[in-house]
Amino acid sequence: MSSDRPPTTGYLPGLLESTLRARRDAGHKLLVPYLTGGLDDQWLVTLEALAGSGADAIEVGIPFSDPMIDGVTIQDASRRALERGTTPDGILADLSRVDVGVPLVVMTYYNLIFRAGHARIAGLMSQSGVSGAIIPDLPLEEVGPWADAADRAGVATVLLVAPSTPLDRIGRICERSRGFVYAVGRMGVTGEQKVLAESARQVAERVSGATDLPVCVGIGVSTPEQAATVCEVADGVVVGSALVRRLLEGGGPEGAAAFVSSLRRALDAG
Amino acid sequence: MTTEPGVTKGATTSPTPEGGSPSVPPIMGDPGPSGRFGGFGGRFVPESLVPACAEVEAAFRSAWVDPAFHDEFRNILHHYGGRPTPVTECARLSQELGVRVLLKREDLAHTGSHKINNVIGQALLAIRMGKKRLIAETGAGQHGVATATAAALFGMECVVYMGEVDTERQELNVFRMELLGAEVRPVSSGSRTLKDAVNEALREWVASVGETHYCLGSVMGPHPFPWMVREFQRIIGDEARSQCRELLDGADPDVVVACAGGGSNAAGIFAGFADATRSELVAVEAAGGAALSMGIPGVLHGMHSALLQDEAGQILEASSISAGLDYPGIGPEHAHLAELGRARYVAADDAEVLDAFQLLARTEGIIPALESAHAIAWVAAASGAEIPSGSTVLINLSGRGDKDVAQVRDILRGRA
User: Fold this and answer.
1) By the CB < 8 Å criterion, does A76 face chain B?
2) Which of A3-12, B57-66, B119-128, B189-198 is predicted least confidently?
3) Is B237 helix (H, G, I), strand (E, B) or coil?
4) How many A-B residue pairs are in contact by the CB < 8 A criterion?
5) N-terminal to C-terminal alpha carbon distance within chain B
6) Which chain A residues are Cβ-neighbours of B314 within 8 angstroms?
7) What residue spans of chain A are helical by DSSP H?
8) Which residues lie below 8 Å from residue B55, measured CB to CB, with a gap of 6+?
9) Which residue from B316, B334, B328, B266 is spatially nearest to B41, judged by alpha carbons?
10) For residue B20, what is the DSSP state?
11) Which residue of B has its CA nearest to A139?
12) Given an 8 Å threshold on Cβ–Cβ distance, is A136 in contact with B47?
């Protein structure tokens, strides 16, 4: 998917953007599974399994006590991870010890970033091999101080566009977004949906018309069929709750890998 | 007693702060499009909610300069809400404490607390925006009851989120909300108290924002809520300032005291005094939920303010005898007032609060809400020390204690 607009300039695309662009431009659809960091003592094994099952990038959640944009599945996973003593520094230290071969993007809430200090945590992310960050409670008007620190550290700040976002605002969000643009598929919190919301395709179309960055749809994309449908208009998908539920139910790294493989097949067949 | 130079007796209850030269912005004024009180405040919400917050802000800005909106707001608060609430001289309590105690009687407002002021304002605003459904969070249940009341009055649908711990300790308020036609949804995530009820209400708002207004209950959350709720509550302070000047021969109280969880009754009464007087302003937090006394700056529930949190930034669970103050944060304007030194933030513990609850009942025949008893408790402890004998103290009695009687009985009998 590309548009007539020139690519965003003024910064050097990092690993996340260049990897995703290269995959997209080679005709692939992008698959970005989400895993809650520190979920269990096998989470790094799961991470590698996801990378080996066709993920183009992996979103690693740094759990927060009050995940207000997350539904029950990710809430449960966050609580479990926190009960194991998971901390932001601990997750980044764990990540620094592995090389899974695909870009890693952390997803977390702003208080953890604010508490750690922008420059310090951006630097830690960079040293740990993290190439992007998604902070859903940090909208365009508030993102400046963090995004500048992240730019300096070479960490891509991925911004979100929602079905409720007005068109002129979409353009401004896309200009400030790095790596890719996260198109929120439905008005609601994260969680599996039996039926793909109509808004998923609509938001993907609107965002794709406003940017040359890769556009991935997340929130409410739960099955291989839904992923394939969304990717008729989007460059890729983020799949979180459907994967994390399998892990919470004891599916283990193998179960996670099997699910991601099924998503990969559906996208490749589309 | 202190008086503001140049301010005469019988000043009006204008919604704009008096005093100061026009070039100096008021201390409790308009936080502007970014919603900042000094460095605090802001709008830290998911993108899905940004347009909704902007819509609420635009609607409020237009309503708040519309005399017809003010007239309707004040008329309903007068004929339905029982305003103005009186200021009561407390002869026996004053004698016992050695300071002159005045109470602003928000406990006498309809539904039994100051919460009615805010919900009437927000319900009118929701109607102006064409929304037919209200959702709300509640801790002690006072804001939930008030929202359910406004929904009944205007024929709107109403859903109230309440932590499971609170639905148990405030069982009667749950029934009250149901009587009023609201649906109460218990929240079982996290600490199962007010903080988690806010999370759940925000989650629900994301999913239903088209037809639903989130009637936030305190001076917290994303811009414009901290400012808007303070403006709807400033009627407390504007009334009280005039009433005090009548009682005190044109003077202002030395100290104005209010309890603070999120901080709406404190913001409401402070708004009448911060710019127009030199009265000392004191907010009393629960010792187990003292965001400003013990917390550090952070971001939660859409706002940058003071929060109870650990080293990594995980939010800590507050713990207080009063469900309404069981909140790990405080409104951002309070963080700003503390930073400026215009208001002081202190704490009262559960034992002091229980004593104060009984003290006011015995000496004045008024049973305060446990939340409001925090303000009484601090005044009782500080009289003759931080509050010199002979001072005049205005306490915002934000709510009545009927809802707390069963809980206090159980504690005093050693059953809880």
Assistant:
1) no
2) A3-12
3) helix
4) 118
5) 43
6) 64-65, 82, 112
7) 15-25, 43-51, 72-83, 88-96, 110-116, 118-127, 144-153, 167-176, 198-208, 224-230, 241-248, 252-269
8) B129
9) B334
10) S
11) B47
12) yes
* CB-CB under 8 Å, B42 with A142: yes
Residues linked to residue B160 through DSSP beta bridges, in sequence order: B136, B184
Write down how long chain A is: 270
| Closest Cβ opposite residue A188 in set B195, B207, B315 | B207
What residue segments make up the domains of chain B, in order of their start? Answer: 37-78+115-214, 82-113+235-412
State the CATH architecture for A15-269: Alpha-Beta Barrel (3.20)
Check CB contact under 8 Å for A111 and B209: no
Pick the CATH number of B37-78+115-214 from 2.130.10.10, 3.40.50.1100, 3.40.640.10, 3.40.250.10: 3.40.50.1100
Q: Answer yes or no: do B314 and A159 touch at CB < 8 A.
A: no
Domain range annotation of chain A: 15-269
Question: Domain spanning B82-113+235-412 has what CATH number?
Answer: 3.40.50.1100
Between CA B261 and CA B286 the distance in angstroms is 7
Residues of chain B contacting A141 with CB distance shorter than 8 Å: 34, 42-43, 50
**CA B12 → CA B3, B123, B241, B392, distances in Å?**
16, 26, 9, 21
Reply yes or no: is the peptide bond before residue B84 cis, omega within 30 of 0: yes
Q: Provide the pLDDT for residue B13.
A: 41
**Nearest residue of chain A to residue B188 (CA atoms):** A72
| pLDDT band at B17; cut points 50, 70, 90 | very low
Element (H, E) at B215: none
Q: Within an 8 Å CB–CB cutoff, is residue B32 touching chain A?
A: no
Provide the pLDDT for residue B21: 55
Q: Please give, rounded to a whole number of angstroms, the shortest distance from the CA of B262 to a CA of chain A.
A: 17
In the three-class reduction of DSSP (H, G, I as helix; E, B as strand; rest coil), residue B254 is classed as: coil
Entry field: residues in chain B: 416
> Given CB atoms, is B36 within the 8 Å cutoff of chain A?
no
C-beta separation of A221 from A196 below 8 A: yes
Neighbours of A22 (CB within 10 A): 11
Residue with tokens 């018309």: A209
ipTM of the complex model: 0.95
Calculate the average pLDDT of chain A. 95
Q: What is the pTM of this model?
A: 0.94
Percent of chain B with pLDDT over 90: 85
Distances, alpha carbon B297 to alpha carbons B273, B326, B332, in Å: 26, 18, 10
Q: Give, for B296, the enclosing helix (H) or strand (E).
A: strand B296-300
Domain B37-78+115-214 matches domain B82-113+235-412 at the CATH topology level:
yes
